[in-house]
Specification:
72 residues, mainly alpha, 2 helices
């Protein structure tokens, strides 16, 4: 499951970076409407990346706590 969370995290990071690059390209070309669209895609991708990273770290903590033997 950890590999899946890591893959999703990387996917959203790549999606955010690509959309940021495309938004900059459209700004340079003077097409502000398309640049605005890709800016929103960048924002959503960045938020999803941060959420997935937070979720993966929490899942790692839970897994580590479950693997520790209980002390009596």
């Amino acid at each position: 499951m950890n590999k899946l969370f890591r893959a999703l995290e990387i996917f959203w990071l790549v999606a955010a970076l690509v959309s940021a690059g495309i938004a900059v390209y459209f700004l340079i070309m003077g097409n502000r409407q398309d640049a605005l669209y890709f800016s929103f895609v960048f924002l959503i991708g960045s938020i999803m990346y941060l959420l997935r990273k937070y979720q993966r770290k929490n899942q790692d903590k839970v897994r580590q706590l479950n693997q520790k033997p209980l002390k009596k």
